Automatic annotation (TrEMBL):
Family: Belongs to the CarA family.
Role this protein plays: Small subunit of the glutamine-dependent carbamoyl phosphate synthetase (CPSase). CPSase catalyzes the formation of carbamoyl phosphate from the ammonia moiety of glutamine, carbonate, and phosphate donated by ATP, constituting the first step of 2 biosynthetic pathways, one leading to arginine and/or urea and the other to pyrimidine nucleotides. The small subunit (glutamine amidotransferase) binds and cleaves glutamine to supply the large subunit with the substrate ammonia.
Keyword hit for Disulfide bond: no
Taxonomic lineage from the root: Bacteria, Pseudomonadati, Pseudomonadota, Alphaproteobacteria, Acetobacterales
Gene that this polypeptide is encoded by: carA
Protein known as: Carbamoyl phosphate synthase small chain
Native source organism of the sequence: Muricoccus pecuniae
Domain Carbamoyl-phosphate synthase small subunit N-terminal: 101-231
Length: 475
């Protein structure tokens, strides 16, 4: 059996191995630390090295375990700390409901994670993802880009700042539910107007606490985002066969158009600008540029950033045609973020975007808008195994060499190799090298995969809104 270091050397080093296996160098670091390679990467390793299967390091060399058997994935059991708040202990595949369990998360492979329920009673089925942000859980839960997803929060303390009427990105919550480690705490923030549990109930969102979120995150990181059903049953009664069937039968986000579900249905004006301490949200009373924002699931703080940059914003539905967009005589067109598969949404969005490009209007896209712009320019998109979700994602601007820490939420990406001549790569992820930005000078269009409005998150990329207004000012 070869060591991990020997395997990496045969593959041409850590960077080459990461490229062969479609992972970031952080994953390679974890291979070295564990002294083993996860089974899901064996086919790529074997293809790159020509080694026989028995040569792959599957358990640490110092282990007495049988090296013919892969190390099992970590169990996603509930926490077992003694005391009044102790979660019910159980194996993830146990069918017996542990004492005190009022919620479960059933994955598509049949595994069951037990815990305590909070928020709304009921069940939701979707894709289970994780978010690494340390703040902004209310903004995250109301971000329309999370439609179809159950969010695992890696930060353990959720609920400590409560909830309020201002920190929302949409009128209704788009996420399906949430998975957390610790019980929700009482709010301790001067802006809180209600407990998070009460807020979740008002939005129909179920939650589960007492979960080993680190183990669940590792599973998603290594095996991809699974389907799942989150079920909160206060009476502790669960129909596990039905829940397993529902989780296994959910079709997944690939091929799913969700933009229509979260988009507005009628055009409307937006003039609310950014929030400031002690004053709340400002209003744009003297705009310099007219912008049409196509709503594929637009976050309010993106619209606020556009208004704050001097724009009069008219928001139109995702299904708006080029003629309907141009009827407002905009100086520029903004393509918003949103959920689902860009290839599915592109069936109606791409013709509209191409019409706008042919009219010579400056175009700026974010997240799903970035992917749709790429499709309109002739590129392709693909689904990421685990996606990028959090407020701590490093991105490199290739023109300046500057690294910006960004807020992100996406499960699909633009395929660099499919970009046509005249379209340049402007930004790349320093996590996995995936595309984070493109530009087409001849069409006066640019877009980024991340969220420069950063709500929640750092404000390193706010300058992009002024880049957009600069293009409009240039005529």
């Amino acid at each position: 059996m070869r060591t991990v270091e020997q395997i990496l050397a045969l593959m041409g080093g850590a960077s080459a191995a990461a490229a062969h296996c479609g992972v970031g160098t952080e994953a390679i670091r974890k291979w070295r630390q564990a002294r083993m390679i996860p089974p899901r990467h064996w086919p790529a390793v074997l293809a790159a090295t020509g080694l026989p299967l028995e040569d792959l390091p599957r358990t640490p060399p110092s282990s007495d375990a049988d090296t013919s058997t892969p190390t099992p994935e970590p169990e996603m059991t509930a926490a077992t700390t003694p005391g009044p708040n102790a979660a019910p202990a159980a194996r993830p595949d146990a069918d017996t409901v542990p004492e005190g369990a009022t919620a479960c998360l059933v994955l598509g492979n049949g595994k069951v994670v037990w815990g305590r329920g909070f928020g709304a009673a009921g069940k939701k089925v979707g894709e289970v993802c994780f978010n690494t942000g340390m703040t902004g859980y209310q903004e995250t839960l109301t971000d329309p880009s999370y439609a179809g997803q159950i969010i695992t929060f890696t930060f353990p303390h959720i609920g400590n700042v409560g909830a309020n009427a201002e920190d929302t990105e949409a009128t209704t919550a788009a996420a399906l539910g949430l998975v957390v480690k610790a019980d929700l705490t009482e709010p301790s923030n001067y802006r809180a107007t209600r407990h998070l549990d009460d807020w979740l109930k008002s939005h129909g969102l179920p939650g589960i606490s007492g979960v080993d979120t680190r183990a669940l995150t590792v599973l998603i990181r290594d095996a991809g985002a699974p389907n799942g059903v989150i079920c909160h049953a206060p009476d502790g009664v669960f129909d596990l066969p039905a829940l397993r069937a529902e989780a296994a039968g959910w079709p997944g986000l690939e091929g799913m158009d969700l933009a229509k579900q979260v988009s507005c249905t009628q055009p409307y004006k937006w003039d609310e600008a950014l929030w400031s301490w002690g004053q709340g949200y400002a209003r744009q009373a003297a705009p310099k540029h007219k912008v049409v924002a196509v709503d594929y699931g637009a976050k309010r703080n993106i619209l606020r950033c556009l208004a704050d940059a001097g724009c009069e914003v008219t928001v139109v539905p995702a299904t708006a045609s080029a003629e309907e967009i141009l009827r407002h005589e905009p100086d520029g067109v903004f393509l918003s973020n949103g959920p689902g598969d860009p290839a599915a949404t592109g069936a109606y969005a791409v013709p509209a975007i191409r019409g706008v490009l042919e009219a010579g209007k400056p175009v700026f896209g974010i997240c799903l808008g970035h992917q749709l712009l790429a499709l309109a320019l002739g590129a392709k998109t693909y689904k990421l195994d685990r996606g990028h979700r959090g407020a701590n994602q490093p991105v490199k601007d290739l023109a300046t060499g500057r690294v910006e820490i960004t807020s992100q939420n996406h499960g699909f990406a633009v395929d660099d190799k499919s970009l046509p001549p005249g379209v340049t790569i402007t930004h790349v992820s320093l996590f996995d090298g995936s595309n984070e930005g493109i530009a087409c000078e001849s069409k006066r269009a640019f877009s980024v995969q991340y969220h420069p409005e950063a709500s929640p998150g750092p404000s390193d990329s706010h300058h992009l809104f002024h880049r957009f207004t600069g293009m409009m000012a240039a005529g």
